[in-house]
């Protein structure tokens, strides 16, 4: 039995046992009907095991069947890649031969291609312009003429395009960075832009990473806490094999429970006894960046944590800062196996808990993105509910809006691997603390914009954002020192949380694409709904700029402005408003 047929037969067997049609499977997995059919018939191999698992789980597959499917998928995928390489070489040879034939028929020698053996092909340059068209094959001449027509039409369209402003927006001119901004000529929609059916925000969207072992929690409104720099690494909870110290973790979880804050626990920091030859982490304990020598030790620790905190910890992140060798220095294959084993244990012990795959960092570098792609290719994401990524600007003091570009880069990697992954933004981490410090003015709205760009990046499947960090003092932005009151940036996080509590997000866009001056970002929200009375509030729009200011007239229905400093103003349609780096909330009449 070939590798592809082995996988297809297993999937087809599950499908028949479930009694579901291809259409029903497509509806429940989010795949197209044709894709499900191709996979079950062995016509193609999914690029990721996550796709296989989605089909299998809908069909009611158990863990043993998933394990068997994983082995079949790995063999089929390896064979498909080998066949793809062979086909690529054959296609290249055929293309070269066809080019030689066409060139000979036209009486022109083809230039030597890279890899040609010297002396076996001519080196005369290809004729240009009309001479080449005349000497080409009929197919080449038709292709060239069609291209010329397309170029001509494009040029005419660019010259004659209606220059009137978009009637769907504010229709206003504006100023940015103090200068005058003319109405755009031609179609110049800024982006990216997305609009979807209104959807409630994830209940834990406004998260923070904790930087304290005291058990104290934020005094401003947030919706979830992530436990990493809380002295709860594996090496600290299990300092000796089989001997556990739960004191700090228990204190922290109880502190979160008192504030009704859901907890995301992060695994990481292998004890020295489990990886004695592994490199040390930067933390002042005996934790190692290597995976354990015996994965049974990993399974035992994961099981102990999951059992003790069943129904108390709502989500688990299966490692922190992969990409930084100071945090993980093992192979992607080993990490994928750790994910598979941990996810299986957590789902058995606490089926309601969510599982986040390890958070990947250094995504601004090609090496970091290649590592993420390599991990995605293992199929490990199929065992997780979501991906975790270190989403942050290029520098610690860079504009938060750079996160949008980084999220798009990660989205492209997931798409290439057939992964429609939801993402939790968990960063930055300590690796980007390059000594930069934010001015008081910039600090005030920096954290707020971190969350807003997470909403803007929802198009790239971003579902939650965990700001780094709460409780610390030696970081670029302090939102609340342990034992002290919230800073102004912290109070503004709480204010944004209050603005958007219970709202449903429906779109985000930028500038002329949404009828605003260039450089103005916007996210739009509709009121939540109750079963009895329907919508429960006004439509809202939050607007801000990355830098500078812009002036625009308010559109129909606007009647109140709320500012991050707590100010509230009555306004009316047609009134000119200045948008800047401090976000503004526009309320519309119901």
TrEMBL record:
Pfam families found in the cross-reference section: HTH_31
Compositional bias segments (type: Acidic residues): 92-103
Domain called HTH cro/C1-type: residue spans: 10-66
CDD domains: HTH_XRE (cd00093)
Annotated region described as Disordered, given as residue ranges: 84-135, 162-193
Compositionally biased tracts (Low complexity): 104-113
InterPro entries in the cross-refs: Cro/C1-type_HTH, GH, Glycosyl_Hydrolase_39, Lambda_DNA-bd_dom_sf
PANTHER family: ALPHA-L-IDURONIDASE, BETA-XYLOSIDASE-LIKE PROTEIN-RELATED
The name this protein goes by in its record: Helix-turn-helix domain-containing protein
Organism: Streptomyces flavofungini
Classification of source organism: Bacteria, Bacillati, Actinomycetota, Actinomycetes, Kitasatosporales
């Amino acid at each position: 039995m070939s590798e592809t047929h082995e996988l297809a037969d297993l999937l087809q067997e599950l499908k028949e046992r479930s009694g579901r049609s291809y259409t029903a499977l497509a509806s429940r997995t989010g795949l197209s009907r044709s894709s499900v059919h191709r996979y079950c018939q062995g016509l193609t191999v999914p690029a990721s095991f996550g796709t296989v698992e989605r089909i299998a789980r809908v069909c009611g597959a158990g863990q043993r069947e998933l394990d068997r499917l994983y082995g079949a998928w790995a063999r089929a995928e390896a064979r498909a890649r080998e066949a793809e390489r062979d086909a690529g070489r054959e296609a290249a040879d055929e293309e070269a031969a066809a080019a030689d034939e066409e060139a000979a028929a036209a009486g022109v020698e083809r230039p030597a291609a890279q890899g040609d053996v010297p002396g076996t092909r001519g080196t005369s340059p290809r004729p240009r312009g009309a001479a080449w068209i005349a000497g080409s094959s009929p197919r080449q001449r038709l292709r060239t003429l069609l291209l010329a027509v397309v170029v001509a039409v494009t040029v005419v369209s660019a010259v004659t395009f209606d220059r009137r402003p978009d009637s769907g927006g504010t229709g206003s001119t504006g100023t940015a960075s103090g200068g005058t901004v003319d109405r755009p000529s031609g179609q110049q929609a800024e982006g990216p832009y997305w609009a979807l059916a209104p959807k409630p925000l994830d209940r834990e969207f406004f998260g923070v990473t904790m930087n304290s072992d005291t058990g104290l929690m934020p005094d401003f409104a947030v919706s979830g806490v992530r436990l990493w720099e809380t002295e709860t690494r594996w090496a600290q909870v299990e300092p000796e094999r089989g001997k556990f110290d739960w004191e700090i973790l228990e204190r922290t979880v109880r502190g979160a429970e008192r504030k009704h804050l859901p907890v995301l626990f992060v695994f990481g920091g292998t004890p020295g006894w489990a990886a004695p030859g592994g490199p040390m982490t930067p933390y002042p304990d005996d934790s190692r960046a290597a995976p354990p020598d015996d994965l049974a030790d990993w399974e035992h620790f994961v099981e102990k944590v999951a059992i003790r905190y069943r129904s108390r910890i709502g989500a688990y992140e299966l490692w922190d800062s992969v990409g930084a060798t100071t945090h993980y220095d093992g192979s992607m294959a080993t990490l994928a196996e750790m994910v598979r084993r941990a996810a299986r244990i957590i789902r058995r012990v606490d089926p309601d808990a969510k599982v986040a795959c390890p958070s990947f960092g250094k995504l601004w570098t090609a090496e970091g993105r290649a590592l993420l792609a390599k991990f995605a290719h293992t199929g490990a994401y199929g065992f997780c509910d979501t991906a975790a990524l270190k989403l942050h600007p290029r520098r610690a003091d860079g504009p938060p809006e750079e996160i949008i570009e980084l999220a798009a880069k990660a989205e492209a990697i997931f798409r290439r691997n057939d992964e429609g992954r939801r993402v939790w933004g968990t960063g930055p981490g300590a690796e980007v603390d390059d000594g930069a410090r934010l001015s008081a003015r910039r600090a005030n709205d920096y954290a707020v914009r971190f969350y807003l760009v997470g909403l803007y990046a929802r198009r790239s499947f971003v579902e939650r954002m965990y700001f780094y960090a709460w409780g610390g003092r030696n970081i670029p932005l302090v939102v609340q020192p342990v034992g002290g009151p919230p800073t102004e940036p912290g109070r503004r996080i709480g204010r944004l949380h209050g603005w958007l509590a219970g709202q449903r997000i429906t779109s985000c866009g930028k500038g002329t694409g949404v009828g605003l001056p260039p450089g103005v970002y916007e996210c739009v929200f509709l009121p939540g709904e109750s079963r009895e009375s329907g919508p429960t509030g006004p439509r809202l729009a939050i607007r801000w700029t990355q830098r500078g200011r812009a002036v625009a007239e308010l559109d129909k229905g606007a009647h109140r402005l709320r500012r991050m400093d707590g100010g509230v103003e009555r306004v009316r349609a047609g009134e000119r408003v200045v948008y800047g780096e401090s976000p503004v909330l526009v309320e519309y009449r119901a």
